[in-house]
Every structure is written in structure tokens, then in C-alpha cells.
Specification:
Layout (H helix, E strand, L loop, with lengths): L1 H12 L3 H23 L2 H17 L11 H24 L4 H8 L3 H19 L3 H12 L4 H8 L3 H22 L6
């Protein structure tokens, strides 16, 4: 699937809108799940996913295949965008009352049900990872720590952190693909 992603990315560089649509269809749910896990807000997560794909479309020369897989690159952009949005929203909401903040964070019932279904699949996939991979995924994607910070705090080489993240993402993707009945996404 990596080659297919890169082929689509090359088509995207030639302003092929269909390539963007195919990449969106393939990665929208995964990126949304990661963004939602970090932000806890559906509206913000949707905004983040939209921002990621706008960046992919408007700056088509950002991805460098020699530096890693396309899916990992997309997840990194999503992670960074999530952190940026949380900081912005935090700054903007400082003047709001506590009541208004609580109201704006409550998702609709149907959104909660959908998130629980998608979140359950992701949580199940994460439990199939090795313990060290689970820990790295939690720290990097869900707590927003940098790879360098994780390496320093766990007293392990930076390359080991990067390798565990890559391997964990590969295992997650494989498990989620298997759970969907082997359907191509």
C-alpha cells in the first residue's frame, strides 16, 4: 500500500484532484481518530483533518519518501496540527465562562456513538501491540511528547523511539485492516 500512497502523492503533485480524494478516503478516519483522541472534540478534530488535507493539496512538495512512510508523515502532521489547535483554543477560551466551555465541548449523541465504535477498534488494535510500542504511541500521539523528549525521559536512543513508532504504526494499520475484513481502504 505504501507504493500506492506514493503514486497517489505523485499524482497529487500534478494537481490531480482524484488522487487527493483517494488519499482522503483512505486516511480520513485514521487521522480523525488520532486528532479526536488528542483533542477530545469532534469539531476540532474535523477541522484538523481538513487542515491536514489542505496542507497536502496546497504544499505538495512537503513529503519526502526517503524519510519514512506516507502514513507516518500524515499522522505526524495531524499530531502537530492537533497540538497547535489545542494551544490556540486554550488561549481563546481563557476569557470564556466555565459553563460555556462545558457546553461547547459536549459532542452530540450520534457523534459519541460513532467515536466509541471507531475508538473501540483503535483501542483493541493498540492492545495487540508490544508493551513498549503501546507506551511510545501513548506518549507520542496522545500526550503530545516529542520523540526527543520520549528518548530522554525513557533513557533510550532516539532511533529506538522512531523505530518503535514506525513498527507500532505498521502493526496498527495491519490490525485495523484485518478487523475490517481485509477490505482495501
Amino acid at each position: 500500500m505504501g507504493e500506492q500512497d506514493y503514486e497517489l502523492y505523485q499524482r497529487l503533485q500534478q494537481s490531480d484532484k482524484r488522487a487527493l480524494e483517494l488519499l482522503y478516503e483512505r486516511y480520513e478516519k485514521l487521522l480523525f481518530s488520532f486528532a479526536f483522541r488528542m483533542t477530545g472534540r469532534r469539531d476540532l478534530s474535523e477541522e484538523i483533518v481538513q487542515e491536514v488535507f489542505i496542507k497536502v493539496w496546497t504544499k505538495p512538495d512537503l513529503y519526502d519518501q526517503s524519510k519514512g512512510k506516507f502514513s507516518s508523515w500524515l499522522l505526524t502532521i495531524t499530531r502537530n496540527a492537533s497540538i497547535d489547535h489545542m494551544r490556540k483554543k486554550s488561549e481563546q477560551s481563557e476569557g470564556l465562562s466555565d459553563h460555556h466551555q462545558l457546553q461547547s465541548r459536549e459532542p452530540a449523541v450520534e457523534d459519541t456513538v460513532q467515536w466509541k465504535e471507531e475508538g473501540k477498534a483503535l483501542r483493541t488494535a493498540i492492545t495487540h501491540l508490544a508493551e513498549d510500542q503501546q507506551e511510545i504511541i501513548e506518549l507520542f500521539y496522545f500526550k503530545g511528547l516529542s520523540q526527543r523528549t520520549i528518548a530522554d525521559e525513557r533513557n533510550i536512543p532516539l532511533g529506538t523511539v522512531k523505530g518503535r513508532i514506525r513498527l507500532a504504526l505498521k502493526h496498527l494499520k495491519k490490525h485495523l485492516h484485518t478487523e475490517k475484513g481485509g477490505e482495501k481502504s
